[in-house]
Design brief:
alpha+beta; Glutaredoxin; five-stranded mixed sheet; about 140 residues
Length: about 140
């Protein structure tokens, strides 16, 4: 697959709250991640859109972060801290951008991300079957 035709997005929950706290760390995480990726000095900043979403239903494991790519597996990570985990999030973005299908072993994920994966969702592949012809 051609790198220029692959679109990547990192989505961060903006409604997550750590238990017993009123702050919502997702907003700070979005800004810190944008800054860290832009400061990386390579093409990674051109390959990712970083945005927030109101809820990703990871309330028990805040803050949640998802990596999406066209025709790639999607990852959902929980228990992410804006200050402590920026390096791991940027490292994973670099790795994810280079994977043709997004499939990455949990043992090879950077730092804390190997233990905080909530889901890996296979890429959606839509097959159209012609009448009478099997899908290959």
């Amino acid at each position: 697959m051609d790198h220029e035709k692959t679109y990547h997005r990192i989505t961060i929950c903006t409604s997550c709250r750590h238990k017993g706290e009123i702050c919502r760390p997702g907003h700070a995480l979005i800004e810190k991640l944008r800054t860290a990726i832009a400061a990386g000095g390579d093409s990674i900043s051109d390959q990712f859109e970083i945005s927030g979403v109101a809820c990703m239903a990871g309330c028990d494991r805040p803050c949640t972060v998802a990596y999406h790519g066209s025709r790639k597996a999607t990852y959902l990570f929980g228990d992410i801290e804006a200050d402590a985990d920026i390096g791991d999030l940027v490292a994973f973005a670099r790795l994810y951008a280079d994977l043709p299908d997004g499939w990455y072993s949990s043992f090879d994920r950077p730092g804390k991300l190997r233990h905080t994966t909530l889901a890996r969702i296979p890429a959606a592949v839509i097959a159209i079957e012609a009448v009478g012809e099997p899908v290959s």
